[in-house]
Write a structure and sequence with these properties.
This protein has 124 residues and is an alpha/beta fold. The chain is globular and about 40 Å long. Helix content is 49%, strand content 19%. 37% of the residues are buried. The chain has a 5-stranded parallel beta sheet with strand order 2-1-3-4-5, sandwiched between helices. It starts with a strand and ends with a helix. It has 6 helices and 5 strands.
Amino acid sequence: MTQPLALVSYERLLPGTQLVNRLQDLGYRVLTSPGGSALALVAHQEKPMIVLIDLVANHAKATQAIADLRHSAATNHLPIIAYSDDKNPTLTAAAREAGATLVVSEVAILTHLEQFLERALELD
């Protein structure tokens, strides 16, 4: 059986590598990618099941990457989980406006990753 692919974009090592390790523990193949326009290109080429994006490191680039994924016919169906710290509610609002499926706190993502994945992958 083929493992599902998760595409992860992060710049901060600690939460990013922890997230990658946790996804691998849950049986995902993980591909990391820079943010911005490169993320949409990688998503188009690699066809992941889900995309996870760190909003904190460079929030303008991250929200643009979410918008790019949503505006491309090849990637607009992908569930996107964006995560950030709880200190900046404008990041949450910007990610939702750009089209993120879920926006969660960085503290909660590792603890509740399996539930967030299930929720993001639910069919409408």
